[in-house]
Amino acid sequence: MRQTRRVPRPLWPVAALALGLAACSEPEAIDYAAMEGGELQGRAEAGDEQAAEELQSRLDEAAAADAELAQAETDAADPEGAFTTALAARDEPRLRALADAGNPWAMFHIALPLTRSADPAEQERGRMLAGKSAESGLPEAQLWIGRAISSGLAGFPADPVRGMRWIEQAAEAGSPEAMFSAAQLYESGPISDPDRARLWYKRAADAGVPAAGQALDRLNAL
Question: Which residue, 61, 66, 73, 187, has most beta carbons within 10 Å?
Answer without folding.
Answer: 187
